[in-house]
Amino acid sequence: MLAEPAPSTTPTPAAPCLDDTVCNYIFDRTGNEWLAAGGYYLLVKPARIVLIILIAIVIRHIAIKMVDRVASSASEGKGSGLLRPLRERIPMPAREATGLRLERRRQRSEALASVLNSVASVSIFAVAAMMVLAELGVNLAPLIASAGIVGVAFGFGAQNLVRDFIAGLFMLLEDQYGVGDTIDVGEVSGTVEAVGLRITTVRDESGVLWYVRNGEISRVGNKSQGWALVAVDVPVGYSVVDRATGVLQEAANALAAEREYADDVINPPEVLGVEQVTPEGAILRVTVRTMPEAQQRLARELRRRLTDAIEAAGLSGRTPAASAARADGAPDVGGPT
After folding, report:
1. CA distance 121 to 64
2. Backbone angles phi, psi at 288, to 5 degrees
3. Which of 30, 172, 279, 300 has the maximal Cβ count within 10 Å?
4. CB 175 within 8 A of CB 106
């Protein structure tokens, strides 16, 4: 009867090395369990951790370079149509491409690049930290589950805050408005003094400073974007409409031709004709398309010029209301409104 073979006495590697190729390789070559385990913990584990950190740093560097390159292209106006802000995808007058506009575009690109770089850095290093913890033998399942629960609770409790940040990010990305713009956001209208990811600061005409949460802005009317329209209504008598039209057109053209105002006028002035008929007479409307920042200044000067032109032509007292006022001894009150 044949004797049964003796059981193998070949040692097996320690438990931490069972699933590691390097540890098994050292054990197969040396047959020393302590040496295999020591090499695994003193060489393999630290090398893997260092490699993870180095790869994370390299990936972060590449991501930041890509973001900076896209931001640089956007600041120079070379970005794709998808990344261009809304204000650059609509018709604009040629004078909009000024040095001030380029500086604003550069500041906006730098702000977006800073936000994206921070998001990329946090995401990459968070993944690297979890991989390092896994290498150290930390069970990530409870940690991930806890993080998920905390994330859900944070999402429910701070949904307004998250909405504000997302709305602010898209507002910056699309460049809907910026510092110095005059905007209307519903209940508040005024000049933008500060723009953030969560809050937009607006000062109204009475000097009140409003803090508006970006998530609560459902619509924005930007009065500083593109061009503005100056419209002046001039009351005249029924019998002098044709003559008054010529006088107003000549006065408006003279204003637009002056060096002080020529750069602010986009299109030649127009006398649209009779805008309204009232018991006192007809109302003629004069319009000029101008730069937003010059709207109020040009409107005041245009009213003055039209008033002087009507007065010089002897048409200011041709409306029934003005004639009645003169008969009562009151001064003439005709002129643009």
Report:
1. 8
2. -140, 130
3. 172
4. no
| SS3 call for 147 | helix
Q: Is residue 132 part of a domain?
A: yes
For residue 249, give the CATH number of its domain.
3.30.70.100
Task: Fill in the DSSP letter of residue 50.
Answer: H
Q: Please list the helix, strand and coil fractions of the chain in percent, rounded to the nearest 5, in that order.
A: 55, 15, 30
Q: Are 191 and 182 in contact (CB under 8 A)?
A: yes
Give the pair of three-digit tokens for residue 236.
Answer: 């005249």
**Residue 173 token pair:** 């990305």
The kind and range of the H/E element at 91 are none
Q: What is the Cα–Cα distance from 65 to 94, expressed in whole angstroms?
A: 33
In which domain, by residue range, is 247 found?
Answer: 228-327
Question: What are the structure tokens assigned to 225, written together?
Answer: 């974007």
Integer Cα distance of 294 and 265 in angstroms: 9
Cβ-Cβ contacts under 8 Å for 68 (sequence gap 6 or more): 113, 117
Mean pLDDT by 10 residues, the chain (337 residues): 48 52 63 61 76 93 88 64 49 48 67 81 89 81 75 71 83 80 87 85 90 89 83 84 89 89 86 85 89 86 90 69 39 41
* Backbone Cα Rg of the chain: 37
Q: How far is CA 271 from CA 263, 266, 294, in A?
A: 20, 16, 20
Tokens of 160: 């307004």
d(CA 274, CA 78): 46
Could you say which DSSP state residue 232 is in?
E
Question: 168: Cβ–Cβ under 8 A, 6 or more apart, which residues?
Answer: 195, 196, 197, 198, 200, 214
| Per-residue pLDDT reduced to its tens digit, 255-314 | 988 888 888 888 889 988 888 888 878 888 999 988 888 888 889 999 999 988 888 888
